[in-house]
Amino acid sequence: MKKIVTLVMMLMLAFTVGLSSNPAYAQEKYPDNSSKKFVDVNTFYKSLDKSEYTEYKNAKMNIREKVFFKDINKVLSRADHLGGQSRVGGDGYNPKRQVYVFLTVSEDGKDSKHIVVDAERKVIIAAAAPLKKP
Fold first, then answer.
1. Residue 112 β-bridge partners
2. Virtual CA dihedral for 72, 73, 77, 78, nearest 10 degrees?
3. Across the chain, which distance is largest between two alpha carbons, in Å?
4. N or C: which end of the chain has fewer CB within 10 A?
5. 88: closest CA among 127, 123, 52?
6. What is the per-residue pLDDT across 9-32, written as a single tens digit (0 to 9) for each?
7. CA-CA distance, 30 to 91, in Å (whole number)?
8. In this prediction, what percent of the chain has a pLDDT beyond 70?
9. CA terminus-to-terminus distance, the chain
């Protein structure tokens, strides 16, 4: 029994060391696409499903940008002075993967919402909207 426990522990250790020794492991799922061309941010916004995201009417601030994944939080931080802070993180995304970032702040500055979309896959990777009040 002692030999089996020792063998299992050694296998678990070997597997863990193997994964941690590969620094690119976490970025392989969604690799660098910085050399690819995608539609401009305004064209992409027009193609968005309006049930997923729309800007506030008479918004205090609207942001539409195509940036690298590593720069998402720099864009979101530009609205910090208008209310709460919002940040995005994620495993598997190369820092140089292109994404679309959309953020809007309501006219009174009390509500904000944002959406982050992978430019290549056209899939929402992060979103936040104000809570619906009863």
1. 105
2. -20
3. 70
4. C
5. 127
6. 565 655 555 544 455 554 478 999
7. 9
8. 69
9. 59
For the chain, what is the mean pLDDT? 81
Q: Which two tokens stand for residue 123?
A: 């899939």
Contact 120, 89 (CB under 8 A): no
Whether the pTM exceeds 0.85: the reply is no
69 with 118: CB under 8 angstroms? no
Tokens 């998402």 — which residue?
A: 72
Strand partners, 27: none
CA dist 75 and 62 (Å) reads 11
Residues forming beta bridges with residue 116, ordered by sequence position = 101, 126
Q: How far apart are CA 85 and CA 73, in angstroms?
A: 10
